[in-house]
Design brief:
The complex is a heterodimer. Chain A has helices at 3-20, 30-55, 61-66, 77-80, 86-108, 113-140, 144-158, 163-173, 190-203. By secondary structure, chain A is mainly α. Chain B contains five helices and seven strands. Classes of the chains: A mainly alpha, B alpha/beta.
C-alpha cells in the first residue's frame, strides 16, 4: 500500500469537499445547491474511509484528518484554491473528476485488496459526480470564460496525478502537458481554510460532543 | 443461546434511518451474522461512504442485539443489487423508484415511474435529499418522484 498516495487522495477529497460545500446555500440554482452539497458529502465520506484504512482498526481517523499542521497536508494545490466563481468552480470540478477517474481506476487494480475494494466502492459513487461534471462541461465548453478558467487551472490539475498518469489526463482533456503545480506545495488560500477546517478540533482536542 | 435466525429477525426490525419503510435487512447492508459459543458477530457495509447515518445504524444494531460485536466493512461488497425483492417492493410502494439492476441500468438507462409504471420520465437532478437519491419527473402522470440511484 502506497501510504503517501492514499493520504494525498484522502486529503484531496476532504479539502475539495470543504471547498465545494462553500456553495451550500448560495449556489446559482437550487439544483446546484443540492448537487454541490451532496457531492461534498460524498467526497468527505471517501476521505473518511481512506483515513480509516490508513490508521487501521484501532486508529483515529479524525486525528489524521485534523491534527496535522497546514504544511503536512498532502492535497493537490488544485483543491485548496478558493474559487467562488461559477466558471472556475465548474472548471475545477470537471478537471478534478477526469483526473480522479484515472487515479481511482489505477487504484482498483492495486495489489492490496483492501485498497482495490475501497477504490471500487468509491468509483461507484464517483460515476454520478462525473455525470454532473460532464453535463456542465457540455453546457459551458464553448464559453470563453470557461475555457480561460480551464487554461488557468490546467497546471494545477496535472498536479493531482503522479507523473506516469499525466499523459492520459492530457489526452482526455485535450490540452498539452505543461509544468504542473505539484503536491506538497500550498497556495495562499490554504492557511485560512486549514484554520477554519480544524477550528472545532483544536478547540476540543478530546473530541467535540454534539 | 441466540440462534442466527433470531439475529436476522431482530435486524429486520431496524428501519433505515433515512428511508424508514425499509429495514437494514431489506437494504442488504447486513453482510454477515455469525454466532459462535454465544458470541454474536455482525458485519455490515455502508450504502454510500458519506452516509451520515452510519454511526446511528451501528448503535441501533448494538441496542437491538445486546452484546453483539458490530463491525463496519468498507469494501465493495454492497451495491444496489443487494436490496432484496421485498425491499424493492416496499420502496416502490412508498413512492421511491427502486434502483434498476446494474446490468440493466448500464445498458438501457430506462427509469420507471413508481406511481404509474410509465417509462416516460426525465431527470430533474442527479442529486437529491440524500446521496442515494436522484430526482425525476414522470411525464405520463406528471408526478415528481425520487429515484434510488443504481450504484
Amino acid at each position: 500500500m502506497n501510504e503517501q498516495a492514499l493520504l494525498g487522495l484522502a486529503d484531496d477529497e476532504l479539502v475539495l469537499g470543504w471547498r465545494d460545500s462553500e456553495w451550500t446555500g448560495i449556489a446559482p440554482m437550487l439544483e446546484e445547491d443540492v448537487a454541490f452539497s451532496s457531492i461534498s458529502q460524498n467526497e468527505i465520506g471517501h476521505a473518511r474511509a481512506v483515513y480509516d484504512l490508513l490508521v487501521g482498526e484501532d486508529g483515529d481517523a479524525d486525528a489524521l484528518a485534523f491534527d496535522r499542521r497546514p504544511e503536512e497536508y498532502r492535497c493537490a494545490p488544485l483543491v485548496e484554491l478558493h474559487l467562488l466563481e461559477w466558471a472556475h468552480t465548474i472548471a475545477r470540478r470537471w478537471l478534478y473528476e477526469v483526473a480522479d477517474e484515472i487515479r481511482v481506476t489505477s487504484l482498483k487494480a492495486d495489489s492490496d485488496s483492501a485498497v482495490a475494494g475501497l477504490a471500487a466502492k468509491i468509483d461507484r459513487e464517483e460515476a454520478y459526480h462525473r455525470m454532473h461534471a460532464e453535463m456542465w462541461h457540455g453546457r459551458l465548453r464553448d464559453e470563453p470564460r470557461f475555457q480561460a478558467a480551464v487554461e488557468e487551472l490546467w497546471p494545477y490539475a496535472l498536479g493531482v496525478l503522479p507523473a506516469e498518469l499525466r499523459g492520459e489526463l492530457a489526452t482526455r482533456v485535450g490540452l498539452a502537458e505543461v509544468e504542473p503545480v505539484e503536491r506538497g506545495t500550498h497556495v495562499d488560500d490554504w492557511p485560512s481554510l486549514w484554520d477554519e477546517m480544524t477550528m472545532v478540533r483544536r478547540s476540543a482536542p478530546a473530541g467535540a460532543q454534539w | 443461546m441466540v440462534a442466527e435466525a433470531q439475529v436476522w429477525e431482530a435486524l429486520d426490525e431496524i428501519p433505515d434511518p433515512e428511508i424508514p419503510v425499509v429495514s437494514l435487512v431489506d437494504l442488504g447492508v447486513i453482510r454477515s451474522v455469525d454466532v459462535e459459543e454465544g458470541q454474536v458477530r455482525i458485519e455490515f457495509t455502508p450504502t454510500f461512504l458519506g452516509c451520515p447515518a452510519l454511526e446511528f445504524m451501528k448503535r441501533a444494531i448494538e441496542e437491538k442485539v445486546p452484546g453483539a460485536e458490530v463491525k463496519v466493512i468498507q469494501d465493495d461488497s454492497w451495491s444496489t443489487d443487494k436490496i432484496t425483492p421485498a425491499g424493492r417492493e416496499k420502496l416502490r410502494a412508498a413512492g421511491f423508484a427502486p434502483p434498476a439492476p446494474r446490468l440493466v441500468q448500464l445498458q438501457s438507462q430506462v427509469h420507471r415511474c413508481p406511481y404509474c409504471g410509465s417509462t416516460e420520465t426525465k431527470l430533474e437532478n442527479i442529486f437529491g435529499p440524500t446521496p442515494c437519491r436522484s430526482l425525476r419527473y414522470c411525464e405520463s402522470c406528471r408526478q415528481p418522484f425520487e429515484q434510488f440511484k443504481t450504484i
